[in-house]
Amino acid sequence: MERLPTELIGNIISRLGPARDVVIASTTRKQWRDAFCCHLPTLSLNSKDRPSSYGISQFETEISTTLSQIERLQGLSISMDEIDEFSAPGVISRLMHSRETLRSLFYNVRTTSNVNILVIYERSKLETLFLAHNSITGVNPNYQGFSWLKSLSLKYVSISALDLSLLLTACPKIEILDLANLEIAMSDTQDKVELRSPTLKSISVEGISLDEFILEADSLERLHLKYCQLKLIKLVGKGTLKQLVIDDVTSNDVTSMDEIGEFSAFDVISWLMHSRETLRSLFYNVRTTSNVNILVIYERSKLETLFLAHNSITGVNPNYQGFSLLKSLSLKYVSISALDLSLLLTACPKIEILDLVNLERAMSDTQDKVELRSPTLKSICVEQISLDEFILEADSLERLHLKDCDLMLIKLVGKGTLKQLVIDGVTSIHFDIGVTLENLEVVDIYDFTIIWPQFYKMISRSSKLRRLRLWDVLFDDKNEIVDLETFAVCFPQLSHLSLWYVYLRDGVHYALAGSSHLENVIEMELGWTTINELFPYWVVGLVKRCPNLRKLVIHGEDMDSEETEECMRLTSLIKHFMDDKYEHVEVQLAYQ
After folding, report:
1. How far apart are CA 400 and CA 424, in angstroms?
2. Mind giving me the DSSP string for 375-420?
3. Residue 263: inside a domain
């Protein structure tokens, strides 16, 4: 470390995080002290780091002393969420000290009286400003006071519509604007915001209610609206938009009880058509007075990512590949028929990721069956869906995730490319994912009933398996016993093993027969529903078979007082065994 340049040392100690750690590090030697005073690029001050013995005034003094010693600070973060009020004069003096060199400021401080950050930093070289719990008034309309600012975030800030517009004008190089939970000052005579910026590339608006929101931005590439109530949204630009995210946006423009919480479909279509030619990513979660057919609007477009929620899809064109560039498709709370879903996947010749969550089967369906085919699909997640049959033909599939589903028949037809299999809370009678699973690396099964001979036949050739989790798994044959020898022989690369303890009349589901070791297992998780005196010996037996184990986590369930006492006694016995013979293994006891 002595040979490192002072500038590099300053960069290193600035990454320690809390200011107190940085100060302590700077006292270790003179070179580090010089780096702290002259070459510290960033510093973070947080109320969570205040010693419990410190009062607010003492904490303020420590902060002032720390900042006064640093000469060329470029990035400053002050977050005082846990302190109600700081002294305003003290805060101003600290900010003025770093005014000339600062490039980035994160400011979240409540003060006895409002601190006007804009007055302190106007005509400075600030490039990034995050401002929270503050009030902005009287923005100067005559000049560009923040000529270097590229990113501006306002959260829980009180500001008038006029001042917000003037502030954006004062930032001629602004590229990123985030507005969250703004309080539009009472001086406004109308509930309307108009913003203009030729350089703005990204805007996020969250938790805001307005009659009108109008944005004129010729370079805008990303528009994100979330948890807003906006009667009118208007974007004026030059067709540069690439990402449009509309998440839980509602309207207060209620003309009848049927329209509560719904936008005019005509308005939504006009927004979407405006960005059709340039958009690459669309996150769309909007309830409208009548359904907006997103597929019709964006067919033959350059869309690569589409998330669609609370919508209805009908009449997918079966004759051509209308989404030739789409790689990722997510449907959530969407009404669609099995035929349209199949046709939609066919219309996406480059699709790699497909997420289906809580789909509503269209009334036109005559049978409870879905068949999907895709030669390019690599990952599929199916959640909260009930069907008689779910059949997937995917030659390139690497990840299959089924969660909270009721599927009588699950069938995967492929070419043995599957690497990850995750089954979580699924009910199924027939489960067939093929016999060529040599590439499986992760098997994670939770709350699922399996026929062990059939399941073992499917995964027994998976010699590349690294993670195996059989958690709260039921066997079709309640007396089924699986030897640990099976895992050792079939899965030589296994590094993470998670098993659920179930006591049987003749032993446990996962028996310790055989002598082979699980040489590569470094982490093991064990859990139970019911526990008895054999559990500690089972645990220690497993540990003996894993000579390179580094970490053991034992999970417990909620129990009554007697069960809790017995549980604590048995797990304490395990910890005693481990501390006595396996000191190198970290043991954690996790109770729910």
Report:
1. 11
2. SS--EEEEES-EEEEEEEE-TT--EEEEES-EEEEEEEE-SS---E
3. no
Domain hosting 498: range is 481-592
Of 366, 387, 402, which one is at a domain's C-terminal end? 366
* Rounded-to-integer distance, Cα 240 and Cα 299, Å: 19
C-alpha neighbours within 13 Å on the C-beta side of residue 15:
5
Q: Which amino acid is at 108?
A: N
How many other CB atoms are there within 10 angstroms of residue 576's CB atom?
Answer: 11
- Indicate the SS3 state at residue 153: strand
What is the token pair recorded at 283? 């996150």
Rounded distance between C-alpha atoms, residue 213 and residue 385, angstroms: 38
Q: Is residue 377 assigned to a domain? A: yes
Q: Percent of the chain having pLDDT more than 70?
A: 78
> Global pTM?
0.70
How many CB atoms are located within 10 Å of the residue 246 CB? 22
Lowest mean pLDDT among 214-218, 232-236, 250-254: 250-254
In terms of domains, do 468 and 505 share one?
no
pLDDT of 348 reads: 94
Q: List, for residues 253-298, the tens digit of each pLDDT value.
A: 322 222 334 555 556 666 676 677 788 888 888 777 677 788 888 8
Query: In whole numbers, what is the pLDDT of the chain averaged over residues?
Result: 81
Residue 451 lies in a domain: yes
* Residues 6 or more apart in contact with residue 448 via CB below 8 angstroms: 423, 424, 425, 426, 428, 473, 474
Q: Which residue matches tokens 């085919």?
A: 373
- H-helix or E-strand spanning residue 113: none
